[in-house]
Amino acid sequence: MMNEKALVTKDLNAKHTKILDALLKLPENRECADCRNKAPRWASVNLGIFICMQCSGIHRSLGVHISKVRSITLDTWLPEQVAFMQCMGNKKSNNYWEAELPKDYNRSMIERFIRAKYAERRWVAQGAVQPSPELCDLSSTTIAFIEGEPKKQSPTKARRLSLDEEVLTKHMSQTGHPQRLRGCSLDIKANSVSPSQTIRALPPSNELEKSIKKMDNCTQDLFSLVPSQGPKEEPSSRPPSSWATFD
């Protein structure tokens, strides 16, 4: 037992304390299982009940073969002990130990009552089997307690398409050419052009032809504004005049 307690880390023990505090908040565990006093802070780990400090002393006097007492906050709890407390609780335990107890029974003599209840088994129904950790399925419960809360397997969610993938998929479906997307997200850089942007950037064919014709007309207008230069005159072959040769 001591070696097992040494394996319980500080974080794990803190989780156990948190789980036990949550169990104490349940309606059936808000009172001592024996004297009905409020806010019990002790427990019998083999009986699976929460008890008050006064009753815990009486349980210790019964011997560990009948009741093993632990403090909720002061002692180190093992995972299987916490799991059994969750499996049992005061209501389920008393259904066994007080099955034939009269409703108006006087509990003022609490020590005598506890000894008659557990040591003498006075009010246990005939043929009933005592609850024990062996009768509880602690495998899944213990694992859930070690992690701090029960594990719930969430359903697998489908990957959400990015905006560019959504536009591209819609376009391919309209054109009749289905496109299989990759399993991972598209890596889109800041300066890259996405397929959807390329599709939106291309104008219809008739508008493209009009733009080309308009550009041709503008080019012709620009050339018309340039002043025309006549053909260069070749040097004259006529002989120079007499005045040009006058010395």
UniProtKB/TrEMBL annotation:
Keyword Oxidoreductase: no
GO MF entry, a single one: GTPase activator activity
Transmembrane segments: none
SMART domains: ArfGap (SM00105)
Span of domain Arf-GAP: 17-131
Family matches, as InterPro entries: ARF_GAP_AGD5/15 (IPR044520), ARFGAP/RecO (IPR037278), ArfGAP_dom (IPR001164), ArfGAP_dom_sf (IPR038508)
Annotated PROSITE patterns: ARFGAP
Keyword Zinc-finger part of the UniProt annotation: yes
Disordered, as annotated region: 223-247
Name by which UniProt lists this protein: Arf-GAP domain-containing protein
